[in-house]
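User: Some background: our group keeps a shared notebook of sequences we're curious about, and every so often someone picks one and asks for a predicted structure to add to the entry. Today it's my turn. The entry only has the sequence so far, pasted here. Could you supply the structure so I can complete it?
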Amino acid sequence: SPAISSTSSQQQSTTTTNNNNYPPKTLHLTAISSPSHLPSLPSELKSNNPTRPLLHIDEHGHPYHYFLNPMTQSVILILLVEMLERFCFYGINYTTTAYLTGEYNDDWNADMPSIQASSYVSISTAVAYTTPFVGAMLADNLLGEYITIIMGCCLCYIPGLILIALTTIPNFMGRIDFNVRAIQWGLLVLWPIGTGTVKACVNVFGAKQFHPILQSSLIERYYVNFYMCINIGALTGGVVVPIVAQWDVTWAYCIPVMVLVVGVSLFLFGGARYVKPVPRYDVGYWMREVGELFCCGGQHDGGGESSERRSQRDKKQQLIQQQSNNSPADKVGIGTVLLLSSLIIPFNIAYAQMATTFIVQGSVMKPWGMIDAPMMNNADAISVLAFGYIIGNIIYPELNRRQIKIPTTHKFAIGSAFGAVAVGCAIITDYQIHRVYKERGEAISILWQSFPYFLIGIGEIFAVSAAYEVAFTVAPAKKKSLASAANLFMVGGAPNVFCIYLYNACRSWFLNANGLAHIHKLSDYSTAKVVNYFWLLEAIAMFGVIVNLLPPVKNWVASIEEAAAEAVKTPMNTPMIRKNLKQRRKDRGGTSSNNDEETPLIKAKKHADYLKYGSGPELRKFGSMRAGPSLKNAHHNPPPTSGGQGQPTTSLAREVKNKLEPYADKK
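Assistant: Of course. Here's the predicted structure to add to the notebook entry:
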């Protein structure tokens, strides 16, 4: 995981035993998940709660208690609501083009040409992946992720699904024509805003259930599982809704409404289990970040702030910057996340074709039983589930054991390469459609499309899941949801906006011999030049491969991850935190002491000189801990003094030393 990467070749482990005197075993100090791990932890990282024994205190002094196994205790409910939400999203998304062009009901439909229906799908997807900025603002600054998810579902998502379903009822409320305005409000406004608001928060909320230090290496597997749940929902929604739509599109579009209601109910059921970080309650902070983001990094002028207040704020920022000694935290911002995520835009442009031009191509192919063009999207979900399991549970763990890390840009390049091969298969399929129709006047089987869908699913595992992970790990602690929104915009918003421009720029390739954009029949499709559009997509995907393989790009991304790791290593080194700590000392009525201002992380860092001679934990990047050399090789000199004032080693160092000595190698 980028969150725990380091240039050090030492393994992130130490040696421990259990209470039954079994042989020593390796303990990964960034994957704490068993009660047998607890005795090896400093007391500052343990709570008095037996069900949530791990403790973390953030920079504002808020304590949070964590489960040893959050995946089964709380995260599973978050993954479940994500899976059901994706059922609804993809059930609608995969069938929209066919619904708007009239394939499900010849008598009651919008009667849109293929290019217009594809544009509607791209617009709704672009809105869905742009509005996460709204969800991020609400989650980070006002409501928190938990409340934002509930509000997004209840106020926008479910009403949007209901409105879309109502448009399928002929002559509803006395109308004799298709209600285009209702489908626009439901498909282009309410539904995508709801899904965008929810999507900005769900993946971040799940990741926040893990202890940020002691369970940081578990986040990589979580994001693979998260993406697999997305595709379980996509698979089931992509099967159930299209099949039912072939029978009755009204019932088909009522199913997502009922499914999402069930999902929200289950999410509410687990409310007491979740770790719910406190939001900032500072909209001005978020607006300044967004202002700087969209003003090319320029400083926000503070809006209506008085000149005196702006001056005080500027002085405070200068003081923080001076005392932090140009901390790496200053190098990682939301603009950086946008640039990182932009590296997979070429892949996502190819990926966006699954619900648009792939459907247009598949609509002129011969169905295989009940499998038609919308249902072929499920080949992508099956591919992600199969290879997601292999990559997440076999390949990545084996690479971690061998201390091999695939650079993030190389993951992006692998994903883009699979996207390019997928588009290449679509090109071959298109040539086959024209050849067979010219020779025999027949349509080829829809199963030809299984190859591009299958390959693009493999690309998703490397490109998109890696983008989710890197956006979370490099973002500052208080900008996780905003970083997720920026990543989602680059995953779905920007690529679909680009696709809309591509459709219009290449409109002549989607016209039949009569100059009309209705090409959902084989005779019309055979006279269009859709294959030219696929060749353009091939060039874009290959561009993504080349860019991500460039050494300067790889080094730049690695430096960003390194800066983020350094920022998390010392999260409380600011004048404001010290002021708060001094105030708490005053409130306790205690005496001032240098040690009062020390967090567990800073204490551990101060004793690094001692710990490097032991086989115990040594603080490294991103708060992870690694094993040092054996105690038998240590020069048993008196322990170093603290702070250069002749004070003896603190009780924390003695505690760690006492825990480690029984495990020293002995001849």
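Suggested note for the entry: The longest strand covers residues 54-57. The chain is about 60% helix and 5% strand.
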